[in-house]
Amino acid sequence: MVLVCQYGVRTEDLGMVFQLIGCCYRLVRLLGLGEERLDLPTASPDDNTRIESERRLIWSCYILDNLIGAGVKDNHCWMACPSIPLPVSETDFVSRMLPSHNELPTIKAFSDDDTITQRLNLRSHIIHLVSLRTQVLR
Question: pLDDT by residue (tens digit) across 50-61?
Answer without folding.
Answer: 888 888 899 988
